[in-house]
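Board notes (copied after class):
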Amino acid sequence: MFLRSFEINPTTTVSDIVLQDYRTADVFHKYGIEYCCAGWWPLEIACTIKGLEVERLTKELENITRTVHASSALFFETWETDFLIDFIIHVHHHYLEQSLPRTAEMIKHFVDEHEKKYPYMQEVNTLFMQLVAEIFPHIRQEEEVVFPYIRQMVHAYENKDSYGKLLVKTLRKPVDMMVLHEKGLLSLLLSLRDLTNQYTPPDSACVSYKVTLSRMKELDNDLMQHIYLENEILFPRVLKIEQELLNDKSLSTILP
C-alpha cells in the first residue's frame, strides 16, 4: 500500500483505493467517506451517496498520489546556508505543521477504536503525543531564534564584519541546545519504530491500521532527513564558523 502507481477507477472500492496508496485516505476523510471496514462501496457509488462528482474526487485522488522524487545526487553540503535554511523551513517545517496534527488524530482515533485488540498502541499514542509536544516548540525556536542568529552570524563571517565575534559570544548556546534536543527526537522515533515493528502492520490489520502506520513511516522518513540536514550539515558548519570567529585575533582589538 506504499506509493505504488495505479489508475483510479470509479468501479474500484474505496478501501481498495486506500490499500493501493495510503495518502488517498486524507481525501476520503475530508469528505466523510468511510475507507476502513465499511469502505466496500465502489468509488462512484460513494460519490453518489455523498453528492459528489466522481470526476472531481478522482482528480483530487490523483493529485494527492502524485509523487515528486528528489534526486539522490543532491549535494546538500554544497548549498549556501541561507538556501539550506529556507529548504528546511519551507519543506520540512511546513510538512510537519500539516502532517503532525492529522497523524496524531489518526493514531488517537485508532487507539480509541482498537485499544483491546492492540493494547501496545496506547504507548505509541503516548510517545507520539510527546513527539508532537516537543516538535512544535522546536520549530518555533529555530525559526524565531536559531535561524535568524545563524543567518546574521554567517553573513558577518562571509563579509568579515567585526560584530560576528560578538554574536557568537552572546548567542552561541541556541545551536548547542538544538543539537541536544534533536537527539531526544531521535530517541522517540527509535522507540516508535520498536513498538510498531518498523511500522509494519500484522497480517490481520485493517485498512485504518495500515494507513496509520504508513503515515507514521512517512513522517519518520521526513524527520530523519530534517534532522540529518541540521545535525550533519547546518549545525556543524555553524559551529565551525563560530570557532573561527572566536579564534580570530584580528578582532581582539575591537571586541573583548
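Comment from the instructor: The chain has a mean pLDDT of 86. The CA atoms of residues 138 and 181 lie 8 Å apart.
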